[in-house]
Design goal:
The structure holds two protein chains of two kinds. Helix content of chain A is 71%, strand content 0%. Chain A is mostly helical. Chain B is built from seven helices and no strands. Chain B is extended, with a radius of gyration of 23 Å. Classes of the chains: A mainly alpha, B mainly alpha. The interface between A and B is medium-sized, with 32 and 33 residues.
Amino acid sequence: MLTDIAARLQALFDQVHLWCSQSAFWSGVFAVGWSLFKVVLIIAFMVVNVLVLVWLERKVSARIQSRLGPMRVSRPHGWAQSLADMVKLLGKEDIIPRSADRALFVIAPIVSFTAALLVYVVVPMGPSAVVSDLNIGMLYLAAVTSFTVMGVLMAGWGSNSKWTLLGAMRGAASIISYEIPMVLAVLGVVMLAGSLSTTAIVQAQSGLWNIVLQPIGFLVFLAALFAELNRVPFDMAEAESELVSGFNTEYSGLRFAFFFLAEYANLVALSAIGVTLYFGGWQGPVLPPLAWFLIKTYAFIVLVMWIRWTLPRVRIDQLLSFGWKVLLPASLVNLAVTGIYLLWV
Amino acid sequence: MSFLDGLAALAPTIGFFVLAVIILVSAWMVSHARRITHAAFFMVLVFTGVAGVFVLLGADFLAGGQVLVYVGAIAVMFLFAIMVSDLKEISDAETRARGAGTGSAAAGGTGTRKVWFVLAGLVTVGFAGLVLAALARSGLPAGAVGAAAGPGTTAPIARELFTTFLVPFELASVVLLVAMVGAIVLVAREREEEVE
């Protein structure tokens, strides 16, 4: 039944594609239309996952703290809580502080959201289920995460408040410090696969997962992930017990929702990248690739949440010295060992 | 239909001109934005636009590197420098400079301004001529970069960097390292003096 529908859709798609390829103009229109369709698909995937994750995060944290978590909005286990939260957020008043830098204040959530969206382009969900298999995949990923910093800095500066500015500066400092060990750790995987393409990296792990070959690299990647995602123990940009709510303190309503969406979308995207890099991506027996991809990604997300609700926040100086004095040397050693292994072993 | 096909063939050119306008307007805004943070964010837009031009040329690795280094590192460093510097001080200095400007306007301030305009114009024309002459000499046919690159530019760039350009490449990294160590030494010395 399902495969039948898929086959029919494929046939329809082929027909339209064939018709469009008759002229340069229509094939251009087709390319643009197809890309737009993919963008809509990604946004839908993002939003659904974020709604699930917000509920999951509350449930996981409740479990860790011996609570029940949301129970009242629909049964079982208050699964519609996120929907209710979303409606509440959309209904809230949109406030722009009078002393804010209006342009930056308005653009910041859009930049954050776009940066999160762009990461999904190279996430491989199956052998051919990737938006665009760029041959500079991992470099693209490192480049795109730079825009996350821009969003945080714009929000922090544009709000014109001490909490947001402090949050933004700490957040940016931690993100750019941890980006270096992260990229160096990822380079080990890239060297093993001999390619920057995410699809090629998954295919290179058909025998053995990279977590076995790159244990140090994985630990460095995992630590840096928390800084990139602004999560406890490295949630410098938010630090709600010191900075109210950090860089997004002055935001409300829909604009706040965009930051919220971007944060959880980044969690999904970077967890998916972690699975791609170290856990064999979509590969696995019996089940279809997409199922394996989702299972592994969600397992990774639960691991991230588990750590987030177990550890306390570190201080900014502890964070930076850990990054530069422990993670950076570790990632360099990992890189050197990988190089020696590839050349002589 | 042929008109539409022509339009499709022109798409990269149109893309280039759109990017060019974005880059030039942003570059103008970098030097003319009223707030210094806006100037820095416009610089981010310039860097991103240049990365877009690299993509159009088929130099995807360069585009990625451009964004990673210029947006992710250099622009962030600029923003940090702006945010940690005492902005009140800057605006005070600015108003003083403006006051001085209006004061000296009576004594032929507009004259000096004209001289600066002419000088800037001369430098611009000279630089543009230099770039054009270099382009003409190199004899690069249009689209040569993309054609030579093929499916991916990562491997060819790496090969060139570690064979033909090995010495300049390593020298550049040594120069960067020296600059970095120098900066740290200078700042550390200042800190020590402050403590004393």
